[in-house]
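User: Quick one: structure for sequence A, then sequence B.

Assistant: Sequence A:
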Amino acid sequence: MKNRQGLMLGLILCFGLQSCSNSPKISESTDQLQGKLVLTGSSTVAPLATEIGKRFESENPEVRVDVQTGGSSRGIADTRQDVADIGMVSRNLKEAEKDLQAFAIARDGIGVILHQDNAVESLSDQQLVDIYTGKLENWQAVGGTNTPITVVNKAEGRSTLELFLEYFNLNNRDIQADVIIGDNQQGIKTVAGNPDAIGYVSIGTAEYTMENGTPIKLLPVGGIAATTENVQNGIFPLSRTLNLVTKTQPQGLDQTFIKFAQSKQVEDIVKEQNFVPVSE
């Protein structure tokens, strides 16, 4: 009887203190993040979000991060319509978009690119305007070879287009484009494959591809060299913030991912892709 009473007392103490090796434990898996995040929008933000997503998945094995491009306008629309959990937008929100929540994850610039074999090393803002509006049609007019200029423009709905037009005080209907492209990689491939082409893309994306052997070069804008360093220093005139956006104040998995994307834990990824971390 004493042994039985002693055993019962031990079991009561054991469950009360939750310290016995054979007592029930809360499964660690219940504390793990679970679910799927869908991000859509800016082609500038997408490669960065993809790499951040991979690291997030490695730290949270029960989470999947699906990143889709389509332009900043798609990111805005999909977020509003609950098609995406998080939108990607490579600019600040407009007044008409202030119903959304924006969270900066990096900064970037927009640079003009030529093929590396093009003899032209710089163009004034007015020369760029004249090229894009069809007033200058031959490279010889700006110190290049006697060949026609191939003008590469961005498609509607791309924030890179909107910021380019705003900086140069242009209307898209006035641009005389030979080629219309969507994302940065399409623009870079088009210029890299045509020595007479001119385009404009993310500086970070251009630098990253140049470091990997793509035959393009960046021209100064407003007399300032188009470099990530000058974006970081705040002196490059055509720069923008790269944002993640949500329909409401984020909670749960959305909130955790956004905080992760803004943290020091991914600063190396931001720098590897030639963007400027928000902390700098």
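Sequence B:
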Amino acid sequence: MWIVRLKPRGSVSPELRSDTLFGCIAWAAVALEGPRRVEAWLTAFEDGDPPFLLSSTFPYQEGSDGGRVYFLPRPLHWPRLPEPRTLEEYRSRKKMKKRRYVPQDTFARVLLGELDVQPSGEDPRLQSESVLHNRINRLTWGTTEPGRLFYQEQLFLPTNTGLYFLLDVLHESETGLLKTCVHLLEHLGWGGNSASGMNHFSVEIEEKGREDFLPRADSPTHFVTLSLYFPKPRERGHFAAHADRCWYELVWRRGKIGGRFFPSGHFWKRAVNYFVEGSVFPLIDGALGCFGCNPLVKAVELKSPYGALRQVRSFGMAFAVPAKVTGVQE
């Protein structure tokens, strides 16, 4: 497994999630080797033999001693805690429920089924700011027309804070291409706003054993997803039958096709409703399998500079981490 660290060179989009990351990597692969390689990836995903899995981006912080603290999404279930008896305990409980991220050690303790777990430390500072931009009318060279001025949410991370995502390479044959794609995106930027200077990073890849970074729960009962997750019909049926054992939130995502890789008038993709990172679901038949699928978001055939694209899909595979759920609170 790779820890891909992204050290920002400027402002960052508030959300760099797994669907965006996969789209960037897939289009970089199309530019390098043509669409057939990516179509082979999509076929492998559909057959339940994913060539790789990736998470969304999460923050990390560098300490003065050279160490790093990695943050992960707060699991949407939490071990039962005693009722607060003082105002300070009540405020601490309320603050904990609002946390979006927890440190790596806290995340591991929750997934191992420990009780009475309190998050250590503070959330990283990821406060977004509204930045004024303008569109220029190339005929009048003016910006005062209606709609020419707009605000955009951007993150400006502290100097000791960066982003990272996990990339689990399951087919050794894809290692070389994936590394080349990641380093190509170091020059081009990640996501649709990269053309305006956002989402440019210095990239570091650290190879690490999955179990050296993520906890391994004995006799797991559930899994936590570290990516946006679009379940297969069988999985949806299983979760509906065990609704009292699921903890999740939903988010609508709608994006554009290709960005600078594929300028076209047919750029809008169909919106997809995902389970968010940190959602918790029961295992199916007690096994940690390949969860999720990549829904079709563009059905028309599109011609790109690299060849015809017969299908455009959005990434919905779960980056599943096994978890042991005992007593929980909603």
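The mean pLDDT is 83. Residues 2-329 form one domain.

User: Thanks, that's what I needed.
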